[in-house]
Amino acid sequence: MSSKKRLQTVRNSINEIDEKIIELMAKRTQLAPEIATLKFSLDMDIMDSSREKDVYAKTREISKKYDFDSEIAIKVMKILIEQNKKLQLKQLEKLKSKPISKSNLKSE
């Protein structure tokens, strides 16, 4: 295979991986409203520094497993966490503006 063809093959692989990364980030972000609703029903704050520390620790473990720079992975996770917090706050505002009792939010 020529170098040009190989380059295109590798780039196509990268494009596929990029799409999967974005798909997974979107799936993660789509969980934010449900997380906010659950936190609301449990009288929890949106900000959860303990959970964030756990996520960063797990990110370091996974980075090490795949021989990936953990600082880059942490930066990505920080962006995702900040986005999720914004979405959770938005959901929380919706919940507070509706006449919903917290007992209706709890699952059985």
Helix coverage percent of residues? over 70%
Largest sheet: none
What is the number of strand segments?
0
- Class by alpha and beta content: mainly alpha
Radius of gyration: 19 Å
In what range is the share of β-strand residues?
under 5%
Number of helices: 4
Overall mean pLDDT? 92
Euclidean distance between termini CA atoms: 59 Å
* Low-confidence runs of at least 5 consecutive residues: none
What form results from the Cα inertia axes?
elongated
- H/E element sequence: HHHH
Question: Would you summarize the structure shown here?
Answer:
By secondary structure, this protein is mainly alpha-helical. The protein has helices at residues 3-30, 32-41, 49-65, 70-97. The protein is 77% helix and 0% strand.
Explain how this protein is built:
- About 75% of the residues lie in helices and about 0% in strands.
- It has four helices and no strands.
- It has helices at about 5-30, 30-40, 50-65, 70-95.
- α2 crosses α4 and α3 (about 50-65) runs antiparallel to α4.
- The longest helix is centred in the N-terminal third of the chain and has 28 residues, at about 5-30.
